[in-house]
Amino acid sequence: MTTIRTRFAPSPTGFMHVGGVRTALFAWLIAQKNNGTFILRIEDTDKAREVDGSIAQIEKSLHWLGIDWTEGITVGGPYAPYLQSERLDIYKQWAQKLVDNGRAYADPYSQTELEEFRNAAVANNKAFLYRDHRPENPPVWDGTQPLRFKSDPKSCKWTDAVMGELSTGPEAIDDFILIKSDGYPTYNFCHIIDDMLMQITHVLRSQEFISSTPKFLNLYEALGIERPILATLPYVMAIDGKKKLGKRDGAKDILEYDTDGYLPEAMMNFLATLGWNDGTEQEIFTPSELIEKFSLDRVQKSPARFDEKRLLWLNGQWIRKLSLDDLFERCTIFWPESAKSIGNSAKKQILMLVQDRLKTLAELPMMTSYFFEEPTPNWSMVTENNQLGKMSRDEIVSLLNSAKTALSESNFDAESLQNTLNSLLETTGQKPGILFSLIRLAVSWAPFSPALNETLSALGNDRVQSRLQSAIETASN
Ligand code: GLU
């Protein structure tokens, strides 16, 4: 049986965003599922587009997500090197084979001549095809001219593992450049050589390459090699579904999500379900469930939409799933400054209270700082509250006073506090939506807090008394 070998072959042209990482993930999942090998190859043949530091950034992004490679850049392997710029001799040898077989020729034209051909085609309302201008006696290729593929234009039919049956007419095939005049190969050429030499069985890549596929198929034929399985992943679109996800719509560096307090498990879950589902309603998938369930035939053909709210929801779900100790470890850098001197067990206790409400780890200061430092009363939070906003200051002061007195008599474990709060509802005749919201605001001045009795218990009697007192003063001023 053939071993499944998939690869991720990014160009080092900047940070990795959602679309790119999803391609890596799908290729990795196929390899994992089949006990195959996942390879990381770097396609750095377009020197003009290269951005310093991108390779490290790519590796870091994959490491963060847990997409590991056992062959490729940094780790090496039987088909090294895995950096295309270190493989130029290999491409030259294969290019020479094509020259020798009469399937490649040196391009003798200047930029101006090419421009003229193109303009003439446009003027005649025709698509420009280089092969319409194939030179009769091309010069001997000495490496200073671009080397072009002598294509065999014809209609083309193929099966894409995601998109299904596809076909094009001969116009999709042209004499494309194999080696540029700077000595570097084009993507169109070298990825085919590498996929062949590296024994890649499945090529997964984004939809932007689909229009070039007939050219690739023509080259496979000319080289006499069997092509791998081709799987085209639909675009990731902005949330409105109208355009490809761009920087303005949230296509940011995947590592920013780490800084923003997202869990890699949630991101992997999110990416996997961008255009794939297992045919059930299941939404939360662990990495091992994904490995078990993933298959190309359930990847949808239509573009996926990037819904950052869903990612946030998934992240909250994943935060809830973690054990307290695991969550605590991941929170290290996210605690507010004021928690620095607080002991671990006290912090863990607070963390346990907010775990179910945290959507990102970066929300930790907003959710917990009032446990570690005195909050500043912000009266607009009262006036902007739907129900409290309708009450007079006198009514509020009187409610706060009743709460202060009743709570001063509680022994501050969560259960007694709940009893105190319940009887307070009866004595004041208020609804929980009013009474509890008011107490919550008065002790925390935060938009959310855990269950009120637990919040009060964690704060302790003294702090609750003094915060209620300062709320009364704020309300009276
Ligand atoms: N180097 C190409 C890119 O970064 C990869 C396409 C492929 O996977 O073949 O877009």
Question: TL;DR of this structure?
Answer:
This protein has 477 residues and is mainly α. It has 19 helices and twelve strands. It has helices at residues 18-33, 54-65, 88-100, 111-123, 187-197, 213-223, 254-259, 264-272, 287-293, 308-321, 324-331, 344-354, 364-372, 380-383, 393-408, 414-428, 432-444, 452-459, 461-476; strands at 5-8, 37-40, 71-72, 104-106, 147-149, 156-160, 164-168, 177-179, 202-206, 229-233, 236-237, 304-305.
What does this structure look like?
About 45% of the residues lie in helices and about 10% in strands. Strands 1-2-3 form a 3-stranded parallel β-sheet, with helices on one face. It has a 3-stranded antiparallel β-sheet with strand order 4-5-8. Strands 6-7 form a two-stranded antiparallel sheet. Among the domains are: about 150 residues, 3-Layer(aba) Sandwich (Rossmann fold); about 100 residues, Arc Repressor Mutant, subunit A. Helix 1 packs across helix 9, helix 11 packs across helix 12 and helix 15 packs across helix 17. With about 475 residues, the protein is mainly alpha-helical. It is built from 19 helices and 12 strands. The termini are far apart. The longest helix is centred in the first third of the chain and has 16 residues. The site of glutamic acid has 7 residues, from helix 5.
